[in-house]
Amino acid sequence: MITKGQPFSIEQYREEGYCGPIQGLTLQEADDYYERFFGVLGQSRYEPGPAGMNLSAWHQRHRWAYELATHPGIVAAMKQILGDDLVLWAMHFWYKEPGNGKYIPWHQDINYWPMEPAINATAWVSLGWSIRENGCLRVIPGTHRSIVEHASTGDESSAFTQGIAAELIDESKAVDVEMSPGQIAFFNEATFHGSDRNDSNIPRVAFSVRYTTPEVKFLMEEWGGDTSRIRTYLVSGEDRFRLNDSIKGVIPAT
Questions:
Q1: Does 10-247 carry CATH code 2.60.120.620?
Q2: What was the pLDDT predicted at 4?
Q3: For the chain, which residues make up each domain, given as ranges?
Q4: At the N or C end, where does the chain have fewer CB atoms within 10 A?
C-alpha cells in the first residue's frame, strides 16, 4: 500500500504509530536544502555519487542544518505529539545514491537507543523525491505497541547488523511512504520501519530528526562507541529536570 500527502493527524500517530506524509517545507526550501546537502558532499546534484562521509549530526556543525532540524513545520507537529517542552537530540541524513544496493532492515529505533523513559518522536523529511524505486521509507502500522527482540541480519546488503526477525514481519501490512520534496512523515520509537535498496537512477535525499522531552535521561554509559553525535537542544518550552546538562549542544554560529 502507498500513502500520499495528507493533513497531520495526532489520532493516526497514536493509533498506528506513524502519520503523514504532510507538506512541511515549501518546494523552494526543499530545493535550497537539497542543494546545500550536495554542497557539503562536494558533489553536483546532477551527478550524485556515494557520500564518502559521516551523515550524522550535521546540525552540530552547520547552522543551516540546525535551522532545518528545527524548521517550524517540524516543531509545530512535534508539539502536538510531545507537548510544548521539546528537546532535539539527533539528526541524520538518509542518503542513497543511484544504484545503492544497501537496504535498511525492519527495525524499531528504541532497540539501539539507551534512554529512560523511552520517549521519542522522529520526523523523516524528504528533500527530493522518495519513491518505491529509490528506496522510500516503509512502515508497518500498529507495531508500536510492543518491543520485540532484534537479531543479526547475517546479510552484507543490510545497512544494519541487526533487525527484526522475518517471522515477526507481516509484509502484507507494510506501507510504502512515498514522498515528494518537502514532505514529512512522523513515527515513534517503536514503530517497525525500514527501506529497500535504490534500484533507480534517482538519488534519495532525506533526513531524520529525533525529538524527546526533558524528563528523558540519556544513559550515555550504555551508548558505546562515538557518542559525540548525541547532544541535546531545548527547542521549545523549558527544562525543569536538567538530566542531560552534560551533553547540551551548542548551536553552530555559521
A1: yes
A2: 53
A3: 10-247
A4: C
